[in-house]
Amino acid sequence: MTSSIILRWFHPFIDAFRARNIPFHYRWRLLLLQPIAILSYLINTVPTIFSYRSSVIHIPVRNGRRIRSLVYYPPAAPDGSGQERRPLHLDIHGGGFIGGCPEAGHRFCAQVANQTGAIVVSTTYRFAPKDLFPAAIDDVDDVVAWLLKNAAERFQADPKMFTISGSSAGGNLALATAIRDDYRQIVRGVITFYASIDLTLPPERKPRPPNYPTKDPIFFLVPLFDAYAGPVRSEHIDNPRLSPAKAPADLLPNKILMVVPTIDILLAEQLQFAKRVNQELEDEGKPGKVEAMIMEKCFHGWLELPSSVIEEKTRTQVFERSIKFLQSIYKQDDQRILSKE
Q1: 92-117: per-residue pLDDT in tens?
Q2: Cα dist. 229→136, 138, 198, 242 in Å?
Q3: pTM score of the predicted model
Q4: Please, is 47 exposed, middle or buried when counting C-beta atoms within 10 Å of its C-beta (0-12, 13-18, 19+)?
Q5: What is the CATH number of the domain that holds 87?
Q6: Closest-CA residue to 95 (of 125, 58, 55, 116)
Q7: Is the dihedral angle over the CA atoms 181, 237, 166, 256 positive or is it negative?
Q8: Could you give the angle at which helices 24-50 and 2-9 cross, rounded to 10 degrees?
Q9: CA pair distance 27, 19, nearest whole angstrom
Q10: Checking CA distances to 92, which of 82, 101, 105, 163 falls within 20 to 30 Å?
Q11: Each residue's pLDDT tens digit, 157-216
Q12: Residue 334 is part of which domain span?
């Protein structure tokens, strides 16, 4: 247990000294990242100790590894009693592809479980710069495969009522998962929070919105945020599994809710994606798939912060809309399943 915590909380420090083939310009930045990582883990994990109902599982993935994940159960007993069909929801944390933990989404995951009756799993994945694309999406693919296989027997959940959400890098992975060929018809809907969906450009070349701060307090970490995609960008420049913004409309799930704060360098790519996809469908005489919930005066990552440092009503607005989005999908899916029985 202690060794597991050390490996998770101090992975930037450990990777800086022990990981092979990491360039020096990443190594020294990993050392500067370490105190920020510890602070982030403290902010996200302490509330889960006292407040929310969850359990830790380790999901087997390729090469004999196991991925640490959290399971949030609905108010009824974990054996699934009290509801005939439980939806299954996967949440993928953010962290710029270089860190983060499943606890980061604990507020949202607990609320989804409580208000929709879904079994909610929050998972992690491998981090850059030690592991480049497609390491993270490979891990999420394997987690999804395991969940779908074990949903009914282990969680009394219905794999036909499957949705995904993700924040920042997790939003990228959520959409990338949904467009995989064998998952495309399974994922019923996706929610992204300030998703990084276009990795064809490094962070320093993304357009800054007018209200973006002129001085970035963590400017020294910016190259790390390109460590997942940067070294392999040229060979995957048009790969929608790296940059879901490249995915054509017909490959995307039928319902996508994008929560888009305006104080974010990812603002433009999200709005362009939503406009482009909906326009493609409109030109074909089909309804749009993407709803963009624009949050004025909100910034990247604000949903994971304590109430003392953000305007709590903005988080409430986002979570309430997200819950309604999921409830609508689950209701439609339940009716669809019943009509086929």
Answers
A1: 999 999 999 999 999 999 999 999 99
A2: 11, 14, 10, 8
A3: 0.95
A4: middle
A5: 3.40.50.1820
A6: 125
A7: negative
A8: 130
A9: 9
A10: 82
A11: 999 999 999 999 999 999 999 999 999 899 999 999 999 999 999 999 999 999 999 888
A12: 2-340
